Amino acid sequence: MAACGGFFLITLDASVVNVALPAMATTLHAGLADLQWVVDAYTVSLAGMIVLAGVAADRLGAGRVFRH
Q: Would you tell me how many other CB atoms lie within 10 Å of the CB of residue 1?
């Protein structure tokens, strides 16, 4: 159940970034290439955090990591 909740939050985060792209484009006067960099930077940083969470779960235990 907790894993499904975590996956839902990841999907929600990705959706929020994509929904915010038009507002970012108009506010920052960004082109398509700039917006692609925003999505890529967000995805790479999210992937890095997932890897760090996996390492923490291996060292501290999955239950402790999900509770905090």
A: 5
Q: Is residue 29 predicted with pLDDT exceeding 90?
A: yes
The Cα–Cα gap between 59 and 68 comes to: 14
Using CA atoms, how far apart are residues 10 and 23, in angstroms rounded to an integer?
21
Which two tokens mark 25? 């484009």
Q: pTM of the predicted model, to two decimals?
A: 0.68
pLDDT at 23 over 90: yes
- Residue 62 tokens read as 């999955």
Which residue blocks in the chain are alpha helix, DSSP H?
A: 2-28, 32-60, 62-67
